[in-house]
Design goal:
single chain, about 190 residues, mainly alpha, two-stranded antiparallel ribbon, 5 helices, 4 strands
Length: about 190
C-alpha cells in the first residue's frame, strides 16, 4: 500500500518524475501527459459526483475513480521485454474484465434512453453538464494515451478502458437529463 509521510521530495525539481519501476522521465513526456489527463479526469469526476444525487450512481462513479488510479498506475509502469500486460502481485494493469464491466454499464444505461435524433449539446441538468465535462476530458486522456502508445508499449486494455469510459460518461450524461428527454439538441445552422 501507499504511505506518504512527506508530500514534497524535491526529486522533481529537475523537471523529471519517477515511474513505478524507479526510472525517471521528463515531466512533459508523452506518458506523463496521459497520466496527467487521467488525473484531471478523475478530478472532474470528483466534481461531478458532488452534483449527482443518486447514491447507486455515486457508488459506480467512485469505482471508476478508483479504476482511474489503477489506470494511472498502469500507464506509469513501463512494459518489460515481452510484456503481455497481465497484472501480477507487483504490477497493476487494467484488465479486460474492467472494460467488459463498463460495456455492460453502457448497455444497461442506454437501454433506458430515448433514441438520439440529433447530436446533443453538453449541458442540461447541472449533474449532466458536469458528467459531459468529464467525458470531454476522458476523450483528451484517450488522445494523449494513444499518442504515448505510438511511442512506447502501452497496455491495450488501458486504451480500451479509457475509450469505453468516455462512452459510458456520454450515456450517463443523457440519463441524468431525464433519460434523454431533457437533452439539448444541436440544431445545425440555427444561428445563421
Amino acid at each position: 500500500m501507499v504511505k506518504l509521510n512527506k508530500i514534497y521530495t524535491k526529486t522533481g525539481d529537475d523537471g523529471t518524475t519517477g515511474l513505478v519501476d524507479g526510472s525517471r522521465i521528463a515531466k512533459n513526456d508523452a506518458r506523463m501527459a496521459a497520466i496527467g489527463d487521467v488525473d484531471e479526469l478523475n478530478s472532474a469526476l470528483g466534481v461531478a459526483i458532488c452534483e449527482v444525487a443518486d447514491a447507486p450512481l455515486v457508488k459506480s462513479l467512485r469505482v471508476i475513480q478508483n479504476e482511474l488510479f489503477d489506470l494511472g498506475a498502469d500507464l506509469a509502469t513501463p512494459a518489460s521485454e515481452g510484456d503481455d500486460f497481465a497484472p501480477s502481485e507487483m504490477v497493476l494493469r487494467v484488465t479486460l474484465s474492467q472494460v467488459e464491466r463498463l460495456e455492460g454499464e453502457i448497455d444497461a444505461v442506454n437501454d433506458h434512453l430515448d433514441p438520439l435524433t440529433s447530436f446533443i449539446l453538453p449541458g442540461g441538468d447541472k449533474s449532466a453538464a458536469a458528467i459531459h465535462l468529464a467525458r470531454a476530458i476522458a476523450r483528451r486522456a484517450e488522445r494523449t494515451a494513444v499518442a504515448a502508445a505510438q511511442l512506447m508499449a502501452i497496455n491495450p486494455q488501458a486504451l480500451a478502458y479509457i475509450n469505453r469510459l468516455s462512452d459510458y460518461l456520454f450515456v450517463l450524461g443523457r440519463m441524468l437529463n431525464e433519460h434523454g428527454k431533457a437533452d439539448i439538441l444541436w440544431v445545425p445552422g440555427a444561428s445563421r
